[in-house]
Amino acid sequence: MNLQIEMEHHRGVLIVRLSGELDHHTSDTVRMQMDEAIQRRQCEHIVLSLKNLQFMDSSGLGVILGRYKLINQKGGKMAVCDVNPPVYRLLDMSGLFKIMPIYDNEGNALSELEVVS
Hints:
Keywords: Phosphoprotein, Sporulation. The chain is of the alpha/beta class and 117 residues long. It has helices spanning 27-40, 58-73, 85-94, 106-112; strands at 3-10, 13-22, 45-56, 78-81, 102-103. α1 packs parallel to α2. The protein is globular.
């Protein structure tokens, strides 16, 4: 299975939707596309939607942590939403939820980041 990346800008938030598998084969592509979107467009925050992400390994975790660090250095926030059980387990074991909030869906994440009027 490969990976599909969908990106959308919404009121200063980069929404990234990943489908498929985020692993050592696809992590560089995700990293480059997210970095380009962060640099090219003015975005203050990132919402990472993992609703259709079926698998992730440590390479994917590194991509998420790296983008968190990048947006955090710019004074922004990053949130994760719609995480399925296998991916949730990896993120939980890694301690990611100690530094980054998780939400049930994109609407809740956007609302918490105070971008919905």
